[in-house]
Amino acid sequence: MKFTVITILPELIEPALTAGVVGRAREAGTITVSSINPRDFTHDRHRTVDDTPYGGGPGMVMKPEPLLAAIGSAGQGHRILLSPGGRPLTQARVAELARKDHLVLVCGRYEGVDERAIELGIDEEISLGDYVLSGGELGALVIIDAVSRLVPGVLGEPESAVDESFSHGLLEYPQYTRPAELDGRPVPPVLASGNHAAIATWRREQSLRRTATRRPDLFRAHVPTKADNKLFPPLHARTHLALVHHPVVDRNAAIVTTALTNFDIHDLARSSMTYGLAGYHIITPITSQRDKATHIADAWIADAQGEHRAAALRLVRVADSIETAIADITAEHGTPPMVVATSARAESFPTLPRVTPTQLLATATIDPRPLLILLGTGWGLADTLIPSASCVLTPIDGPSTWNHLSVRSAGAVLLDRLFSRPA
Ligand SMILES: C[S@@+](CC[C@H](N)C(=O)[O-])C[C@H]1O[C@@H](n2cnc3c(N)ncnc32)[C@H](O)[C@@H]1O
Asked: Ligand 1 centroid to 30 CA: how many Å?
């Protein structure tokens, strides 16, 4: 693998590549690194590589001609500009880059690079992250380091790279070495057990836990294996939705009981079925309203023409209070649920932690408890009367400031934000 770095500061590159894995790979000839200085392609006394920006503004811009001449002199290769405006570097992209023969890494300086040099001489722009460095050289070094370790022959044991953080879309499990105990902290006993299957299971579990707690975004994108589903049963299949008619508030913040709505029974049952939930609970203290809900659900279940609808309506259960629904779910799963409140207003449930759907998906998946999501009717859940809730979902928002969705729509959007498959 050949790396060519285009930089006006080549003295920054060489010293960082003499030791460690990359240094040894260079000595062995598995990789080569050289630098080309755009100043060598200037024709004025001062070897000028920058000029003032058209349109004004602070700082200077790298001139296109010396940069393009330097890139051209590097020969055939995949030409990458390090740029905060590029695609953020990921391990997946590193693995793709490791399959190329020659990477030409172009380092910007000053306020950046003339756009036409990018259009004419660059194949791809890569960013190290959402912060601004004073030049692309550190980025080029990062790419050389990350890519080299995936080049065959660079790492001693090829598995070292396969097992690492991000290789499977997850963070790596914690590592330990001797001593067996440090400052009262023992090494997890399973690692010293010699049982390789148990060690592999422990490591996978730790890896999933760590990713869920530290990087819910990565966890969400991870497609669980069958073995992962055994360690942490899929959340949707132990999630219950509850439509709460009491205690809720009216427009004057008075505690009220709302009336049942036929559409809510039907539509939220269908949403619950679509996202694979375990149950949909209609909560009202009024006996005749509960009877009506059961009657409506039963009517649809009995309809011989509508097997799809019947399957959804079979998820419907009724309860006289949130506490009764919690008791029913506890009996079904053998453990009480984690209860999550919802609200359209950011200031509701002021004492509870706020979680996004992605955070809830991650934390609740590694928690063995079932999940109960409470949807309010009327003007929303009466936050002072629901002590069982342990967190509240952030309000659903769109580009407008208006978010007064019907509870049917809110439930559907929420379930989609929680359980939709990554596109
Ligand atoms: C001071 S920066 C220019 C920043 C530019 N004015 C902007 O706001 O996007 C100079 C050079 O550093 C490099 N650089 C800065 N931040 C970077 C990042 N996050 N990832 C990759 N390269 C970066 C680029 O080569 C860039 O052209």
From this structure: 30
